[in-house]
Give the backbone structure.
Amino acid sequence: MPQEIGSEICFKVLSRKQIKEIHLASLKILEKTGVKVFDQEAIALLKKAGSNVVEGNIVRIPPRLVEEALSGATSKITIYNREGKPLSPLLDQIDITLRLWC
């Protein structure tokens, strides 16, 4: 059930433990299995940042790199329509907050 916190709404579908387990599993997949990347510039950037590239385009990303990227990601976004205006007048007045932990 949604929980209102100030002007933000927090949906708690998973427990903190479940979220952490999913996050740790995704870190393991990115490091051990990797992901196929088809853009050569992206491959070069990931390799320079410390990722291991195998079979030409499979990039194995170390947990440190993922955590660095997440720590620099914004937690608030504004959604715009095709004309570059906020999706609705209501959204112009609020921020949509994306948080891993509620």
